Amino acid sequence: MNADKPLIERKSISKRVRFEVFKRDCFTCQYCGRVPPTVMLEIDHIIPVVGGGSNDESNLVTSCFDCNRGKSDVPLNVAPESLAARAARIEEAEAQLAGYREIALAREARIERDCWDIIEILTGNRSETTHETFKAVKQFLGRLPIDEVMDAAQIASAFRTSSDRRRLRYFCGVCWRKIDPTRGQE
Contacts by 90-99 with C-beta closer than 8 Å and gap 24+? Predict the structure, then answer.
């Protein structure tokens, strides 16, 4: 016997309390998730008896023989995550990722629709739109509110030129001035 630890008198746990704890924990080891008949289940104290833990059901947990012996009288600040809790956590993370992906795809689709609406205002012709035009419009949508970009497209569409390239450059200049009003005023 260890001289540093005082002798603590352990009270036995009744069969009824033992059964209620097993039933509450679904006859599953709360540390490793194993179930009978592959393991022998025992009752473990969350706060060890030597640490002042009681036989109250709130301090008892279902444990397999191996986990209970491995834990010994080491106190648990937080009981390890059960397999069911871990599966639920992973499922929740997957659902969050799927939700985020759905939102990101919807955002990207909205930005693309906004780009085409602005290009329609700017050029009146979607079919001959260059990648350069689409990229420029998308860039400004990332830096300005949509109404500001639409306003710039309307201003540029009124610019009298037959060249879509010159109209795009004019549109870009209007947008840059909206972003930085001091631009070009050196």
Answer: none
Cα 186 from Cα 182, distance rounded (Å): 8
Main-chain dihedrals φ then ψ at residue 180, nearest 5 degrees: -135, 95
Torsion of CA 110, 114, 119, 124, to 10 degrees: 100
Within a domain: residue 3?
A: no
* Mean pLDDT rounded to a whole number for the chain: 84
Residue 174 lies in a domain: yes
pLDDT digits (tens, 9 = 90+) for 104-123: 999 999 999 999 999 998 88
pLDDT tier at 55 (50, 70, 90 boundaries)? Answer: confident
Cis peptide before 37 (omega within 30 of 0): yes
Taking the model in full, what pTM does it have? 0.49
Residue-range definition of the domain harbouring residue 24: 15-71
Domain shared by 121 and 58, yes or no: no
φ/ψ (deg, to 5) at 16? -65, -45
Q: How many domains does the chain divide into?
A: 2
Q: Based on C-alpha coordinates, what's the Rg of the chain? A: 34
90 in a structural domain: no
